[in-house]
Amino acid sequence: MNWQLTGAIAVASLIGLAGGIGAYTFIYARGASYLTDDPSACANCHIMREHHDRWVKSSHRNVAVCNDCHTPSGFLAKYATKVSNGFRHSFAFTTGRFQEPLQIKSFNLEIVNQACRKCHGAIVEAIEGPHQAAQQIFCVQCHRWVGHP
Fold first, then answer.
1. Total domains, the chain
2. Each residue's pLDDT tens digit, 94-146
3. What is the pLDDT of residues 43-69, one digit of tens each?
């Protein structure tokens, strides 16, 4: 048998195997649900069920869904963040390599802080006043449980 043909078959087999495993995982993990703004998608992972249940009881339930606070505005930025977080979260949850309680990463903390400021800008400006340039205050330092009481 020709070595080039054998190599091509091996590469095609690996691509097919990876594609099959990827498709199975996407379907099993309800991957399409993460492309929506439906908050119940966030509860697909059992570790997020409590966060979702607390959001349902919060005042933010009437004005914001998970993506409003946890993804930046703009189509590309939103889905780039969803892909990045989705990969990291699925890897961490699958391998069991995550902290409990869950810890927000600095990149995502900035996204949440900007979301707070977008909706509550006037209040934040009044609190920060003339000190705004000196140090940015992260809203969740004091309001940690607002979205998930």
1. 2
2. 888 888 878 888 899 999 999 998 999 888 888 777 666 556 778 888 888 78
3. 887 788 888 999 999 889 999 999 999
Close Cβ partners of 138 (under 8 Å, ≥ 6 residues apart): 109, 113
Helices and strands of the chain, counted as H and E runs: 5, 0
Give domain status of residue 92, yes or no. Answer: yes
**Burial (CB count within 10 angstroms: exposed 0-12, middle 13-18, buried 19+), residue 6:** exposed
Q: Check which CATH number belongs to the domain holding 44 and give it.
A: 1.10.3820.10
**What's the number of CA atoms in the CB half-sphere (13 Å) around residue 119?**
12
